[in-house]
User: Which sequence fits this backbone?
């Protein structure tokens, strides 16, 4: 499957805050978050550097639609999505899959 879009979820060390984002290049985007490219961003302010969930889509439009859907969810539903994919909530940013 061609991977033109990806949604991802970041959290902080204590897993207290979540950020749902979309990108065409997951690895590059995660590096931007980890390096604090934008010092005024939500992810920088709350130290959201741990990639705990991602899913690839064949079209960026599909990824954007999925991001919007997940952003509307309550925290519990997001937690369940993450736990089903990554039960230990490990940082997946070093995964060879991204």
Assistant:
């Amino acid at each position: 499957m061609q991977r033109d879009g990806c949604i991802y979820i970041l959290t902080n060390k204590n897993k207290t805050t979540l950020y749902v984002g979309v990108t065409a290049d997951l690895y590059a985007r995660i590096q931007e978050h980890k390096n604090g490219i934008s010092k005024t961003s939500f992810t920088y302010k709350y130290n959201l550097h741990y990639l705990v969930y991602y899913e690839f889509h064949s079209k960026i439009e599909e990824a954007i639609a999925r991001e919007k859907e997940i952003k509307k969810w309550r925290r519990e539903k997001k937690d369940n999505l993450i736990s089903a994919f990554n039960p230990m909530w490990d940082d997946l940013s070093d995964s060879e899959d991204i």
In short: Residues 5-85 form a domain with the GIY-YIG endonuclease fold (CATH 3.40.1440.10).
